[in-house]
Amino acid sequence: MSVWLTRLVLDTRHRAVRADLRDAVNLHKRVMMLVPDDLGAHARARTGVLFRLEEGRSGLSLLIQSQCRPELDRLPDGYGTAAVKDIDPLLTRLRPGLPVHYRIAANASKRLAKADGNHKAKQVVALSGSAADEWWSRKATEHGLALSSLLSTPMPTATGKAGQGQRVSHSLTRFDGLAVITDAERLRAAIVEGIGRGKSYGCGLLSLAVART
């Protein structure tokens, strides 16, 4: 299994780009255009598609990870400029004790506990501030990372219109910092599968870079 990482520098003057950025459901559909058709109801999970929007020196980029090489010719002409690489060498290099830089934009959230008389029981609520930091610290530990530093940055909520008048809404917090790998196998699984809720809408893609020592 190969894992591909695509950095698509978006042309924000493009009409389709602007429309996709306004609606997380549209953006999800655009990303899923890059994988084969007829994969059924769980196409995103089957192809391991995860993505994240981020600002950089080149402008606004869409970072897309998948277990199949993306079919970039399906994008509208002028949508953006893409660079694709195989990240299998990085995944193979991961080992306990290795220091890494990390970045993830995640939906830090929790489901309310069931309680008598609580009409909000089982409702998912967004976390922010120190509660979001605690959420990521716990998730990182569960997935094979011991955090050395943590910087959290609130991001715009991913919203959009789903079918039958329903709306999608996922809060986003970006977490950056340094960590040391404690369990390489769990960490590789987390990179491939994503972490947390909202994976279809720009949440959960964990990016790593080996730190210089």
Describe it for me?
The chain is 24% helix and 36% strand. The protein contains 6 helices and 11 strands. The strands form 3 sheets. Strands 5, 8, 9, 10 and 11 form a 5-stranded antiparallel β-sheet that branches. A hairpin with a 2-residue loop joins β2 and β3 (59-66). The radius of gyration is 18 Å and the shape is globular.
How are the SSEs ordered, and which strands pair?
Elements: E1 4-10, H1 15-22, H2 24-32, H3 43-47, E2 50-56, E3 59-66, E4 80-86, H4 88-93, E5 99-106, E6 109-111, E7 124-126, H5 129-142, E8 145-147, E9 151-161, E10 167-181, H6 184-193, E11 206-210
Antiparallel strand pairs: 1-3, 1-4, 2-3, 5-10, 5-11, 6-7, 8-10, 9-10
Which second-level CATH architecture of the largest domain applies?
2-Layer Sandwich
- Report the structural category: alpha+beta
Uncertain segments of ≥5 residues (pLDDT<50)? none
The CATH homology group name of the largest domain: Crispr-associated protein, domain 2
State the order of secondary-structure elements, H for helix, E for strand. EHHHEEEHEEEHEEEHE
Task: Report the span from N to C terminus.
Answer: 30 Å
Roughly what is the average pLDDT, rounded to an integer? 92
CATH topology label of the largest domain: Alpha-Beta Plaits
**Largest sheet properties:** 5 strands, antiparallel
The CATH class of the largest domain is Alpha Beta
Dominant shape: globular
Helical content (DSSP H or I, runs of 4+)? 10-25%
Measured on Cα atoms, how large is the radius of gyration? 18 Å
Tally of alpha and pi helices: 6
Total number of domains: 2
